[in-house]
Amino acid sequence: MFKRSIVKKLMFLYFIVGFSSLSIIGFYSYFKAKNALIARAFEQLNSVRSLKQIEIENYFRTHRSLSGKYLIDPEELNSILLDTSRNNVLGKSGEIYLVGSDLMLRSKSRYAQKPPGEVKAETKSIKRAFTEGQGNGVCKDYRGVLSLNSFNRLDIEGLNWIIIAEIDYEEAMITIINLRNDLLFVSFVVLILIFSIAQVITTDIVGPVITFKNASVKIGQGDLDTKVNFDAENEFGILSSAFNQMLDDIKRNTAELISERIKRISALYDGQEFERQRLSRDLHDGLAQHLIAVKMSFENMVNRKDFEDEKKISELKQQIINSIEELRKISYDLAPAGMMDFTLEGAINNMCQQIQKNSNLVIEFSSYGDLSGLNKRSKIYLYRIIQEALNNTIKHAEASKVDIQITETKEHFVLMIEDNGKGFDIDNKELGLGKGLLNIRERSILLNGTFDVESIPGVGTTIRIKIDKKIESGEN
Hints:
The protein is an alpha+beta fold and 476 residues long. Among the domains are: 6-177, 2-Layer Sandwich (Beta-Lactamase), CATH 3.30.450.20; 338-476, Histidine kinase-like ATPase, C-terminal domain (Heat Shock Protein 90). 59% of the residues lie in helices and 14% in strands. The chain has twelve helices and nine strands. It has helices at 6-62, 74-81, 124-132, 169-172, 174-220, 235-304, 310-334, 337-341, 344-358, 376-397, 435-446, 469-475; strands at residues 95-99, 135-140, 146-153, 162-168, 362-368, 401-408, 412-419, 450-456, 460-468. It has a five-stranded mixed β-sheet. It is rod-shaped.
């Protein structure tokens, strides 16, 4: 339950510490007060019992005849022991009575309805009094009610009686019971206070941690503009400053790495394009010219009828013509003449026508706006992007139609390539973007443009590339 939640851990910890502390203090205070109250009750019982014992003993001594018999008036005896006044120190339940050796009452009880001689008081304290003499105890009285008592044997010659003073335990403990209830109430209030304080402290601690976690998630998703700001002059404020400084360093280093990577990739592609143009020139100016010269020589020989086998000559002538066409095609692919000599639209139209001749693909190309704002490098890159996209479509898409549009807007040049092929699942990490799409994305980045691809299985794929006109005008 607490493995992932610091809040729950801290709240649980605060609860355990608070509850344990309150329990220890509460129990200690309760039992300390309880023992003190019991000791005070015993002192009071002992005091009252001692005074009554002296009165009883004096009464018996003054009411003894010469023959040694005691002339006792039960009413006078009861009047000494029973105290029903409001100032009764034994409270509402307290009483003092006498018990004989047969465990029968010898004086009237305030509770018993029967005469004293018919009420038996066989309790632990009374038995202890006959065996031990003076003492105190906590036990049930003759009514079966738990009580505190003080007892002693009477010092009366010829009588084996005891005197016992009692008070109900519940009445004696009424103060401690009230104290217990007060402690429970105070403990409940303190626990609520602890929980409130714990909530505030936990929020102050966990809140910044969650903020840092959320910021880390955003950074992991590529949002390097995330900032964590804590104005407090504490550890979290220092940590947020260090975190933001670290983020600035990461952002700066990432920008430097991306810039360096773009420069290297740009140099690579520019070098490839330069090499293609060199090869195209060499093929066109060298090998192509030689083949044309050979073709012309053969034509002269045929015209002069220097060879008897005209069929073989015709076949050889056609092979030379095919070689020249293939050489021109290779040269065009390396450096499209339409783009070098005319416009980007012309070069793209020528490429589309060549591809349609050699495949079953229907290509529709259209442009809107003035594309002269594109610099030479951007034109070459856009041409290569379209070339890569069409090759990718022929190899993988199984499409029958492709629409290509280049549009000039107020702020951008937008290229869109859409096919009706089988499409693919972009979210499938195992498939990912193929090499062709990765090359297109790389060239888009080199143009400081944005690259978006949408694909639906069974419907087709759409590629959108957007180039900022401000950047283009800056490079011209």
